[in-house]
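Bug report (template v2)

What were you trying to do?
Predict the complex of my protein with zinc ion.

What happened?
Run completed; filing so the output is reviewed.

Input:
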Amino acid sequence: MHETSIAGNIIDIINESVNSPDRLKVNQVKLKIGVLSNVNIEALVSAFQLAVMDSELSNSKLIVETQPVILECNDCKNICSTEEYIYSCVNCGSNNIEVKSGDELEISEIILDR
Ligand SMILES: [Zn+2]
């Protein structure tokens, strides 16, 4: 499953950025996921919970914030933000549009308990 390998990558990143004694204190891991990234968020959260169970990261929870799609029209330079991909500019109707963001998947913050 796609989400299992993403959860594995997230855990690798946490392990790289947090030293071993502090990993037990990791409480929240905030993720930004663009709506175009094709990730099933529920599946990702359960894959993550399963993967951290009985590990140093067992206290951590994934908090997912979805990010809208930002599109820029190459013809009229209109920038719009939508919840799903659209194929033409809302301003001038051109198909000459570019995705500026909306397919990202990144950790925005790792919060440790004091
Ligand atoms: Zn346009």
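What did the reviewer find?
The beta strands are 26-34, 61-67, 69-73, 79-82, 97-101, 105-112. The chain has a mean pLDDT of 94.
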